[in-house]
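Need tokens for this chain, all 181 residues.
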Amino acid sequence: MKNTHARQPLKSVRNMVQACIQCGTCTGSCPNAFAMDHTPRQLWQMLLNDRPRDAITSKTFILCSSCYYCTLRCPRGLPLTDAMAALTRLAKTENPGGFKKSQAFFHQFLESVRRHGRVNESELMTLFFMEAKDPVLPFAYANLGIKFLRKNKIRLPFVKQKPSRGLDKIFEKVRELETHS
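Here are the structure tokens for all 181 residues:
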């Protein structure tokens, strides 16, 4: 860990999973476990075996969709979804560069929904690439883009949509709540 300030939140996460019996129910319940580099059970094991750096650099908690299946099905009643959220917050403070692309995507996704009331895929990806400032990144998505174009799932150039103002108050409230947490 970089500093002692980060140890307190990590201790809090460890306390959340201290009673884990490594049964694997969390992993078996997780709809995203197939895409994770470590299963949720393995992540708890890392924390309990004093391997915080491995846990913080993992992509497991980033892929958590906060569905609460793991929390609901845990035989010990552990707050696993809350632990995943706490790890995400901790990792963002400890390794902010590791989240640059995902934060750029998330930001542009929400902005597209706020502006149009739905996602405009072409606009989303273009603005995501621009915000990520990685000239090679678009090539990683080229094959997927071509498939979507062939199936008429996306259109070029941008389709003009009426701006959606109905969601502005919701987005303002979320920003306010996020600022206070």
